[in-house]
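Worked example

This section walks through a single chain of length 271. The input is the sequence exactly as stored; nothing has been trimmed or padded.
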Amino acid sequence: MADMRLIVAGAGGRMGRALTRAISETPGAVLAGALEAPGSDLLGQDAGMLAGLPANGVKLSADLWALSANADGILDFTVPAATIANVAIAAERGLVHVIGTTGLSASDDAVIKSVTQRAIVVKSGNMSLGVNLLAALVRRVARSLDESFDIEIVEMHHRAKIDAPSGTALMLGEAAADGRGIGLGQHSARGRDGHTGARKPGDIGFASLRGGTAAGDHSVIFAGPSERLTLSHHAEDRMIFAHGALKAALWAHGKKPGLYSMADVLGLADF
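Given that input, the structure is written out below as tokens.
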């Protein structure tokens, strides 16, 4: 099979540069385009050189329609507004759209879901293989332990992260809620401050820490009577997310239209 031709969205950012490097290291994948925001100072620069690689001749462009004429997929770790703008073009072009953008709203998710009758989308709050295994374990443990075990999720990211809780923390919260058979939206406790009163039974709590250069630490704590169980994942390099996204893109190439997750990619959907 021919190499999968991929566009990196946000190619000038930290994740975009990591994705460019990951493509260069992945057999079966080739960089077909590098997308950046209109007005960016990086437009026209070489994507390879920005990623710390030899020049590859792929220049950063703001024109996804033109870039996608000769591409098979797009790797999108940008911001919600950019991702939603990319969704329609990716669907029209028939691209595999791998979405790792966090901070998406319910209406953003509805827009993404609306194209999946004709488009292939793989969407996850975290593309790390380890985090997705963690989510499967969280779901299983939450199913096994009753409400006498309180669930708390603690996450830490670098100082520049703009959304909280992280997409990964929310993904883990959804896994815990699914295991308990409840809706996260109705059982989510965030930002405790002041005289909050006692903890509500059944709530899933979140705490978000920001500082330094942390790539991402997540722990799910099951706190029961006289004992605690903690499941954790610590990211040391954002390349783990880039390689996971590449695995997702190659897996999705040729699949029928639909909305997939990393659990599908890893065969964990029924774990």
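What to look for: Residues 77 and 101 are 4 Å apart (CA to CA).
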